[in-house]
Input
Amino acid sequence: MRKKIVAGNWKMNMELEEGLNLVKSINQYFTDKPSVRCEVIVCPPYIHLASVNQILKNGKVRAGAQNCASEKSGAYTGEVSAPMIKSTGAEYVIIGHSERRTYYNEDNRILNKKTILALGAGLKVIFCCGEVKEERESGKYFEVVRTQLEEGLFTLKPEEITNVVIAYEPVWAIGTGLTATPEQAQEMHEYIRSLIKGKYGSVIAENITILYGGSCKPSNAAEIFSKPDVDGGLIGGASLKKEDFIAIVEAV
Ligand code: PEP
Output
């Protein structure tokens, strides 16, 4: 059985105290509920990671970063490396979020470099892929996602790809209130799994976790997560509200 995951991407939200309060209550909730077997991850801004991990030390919830540098160390003012993230106790890092691709011009080559560094530092990678609206409308979405995966991930060895979670996030659905239909999500997740199978074989393909992201909320989560190739979600806006995030995790 592959792992089910719900990860909250806080983006550039939450000052320290409110972030820690949110983490405390989410962690308490899931630590007291062993029946929830889905892995729950919070991805706060870098600056909160060490404090968040102090709270999560004995709990059930894990933490991840939203990005990492494309170099291991050195004179890169303002950057945060994968080993630094690991040293806070974080277990995951999101790489290739569409906001990084769009606003910071991160291309597949850079994302591949970051992925290799993150895995080398002992982190697990949540690798995002997904098409923009025009690519969906022109029918190019399979091709776009295939290129993102081939260039971003498929240089990895089989023992490396097993530490990667893929998040399919149609860009037109992120923060817009538009959601892919459960059928659209399933179609793409099945396609992604077939690409993994072609490259790494059926055992790895069957075991890799593929998340859906894009305006997921308590009212639509259960239907999307009911699809056979959807193994959970990467959640933006709704991860900032305790009740919504918990309801989404419980929908898995
Ligand atoms: C995201 O940023 O990864 C995301 C899915 O955002 P939202 O849920 O707000 O659409």
The pocket of phosphoenolpyruvate is lined by residues 9, 169, 174-175, 213-216, 234-238 (CB under 6 Å). The longest strand covers residues 124-129.
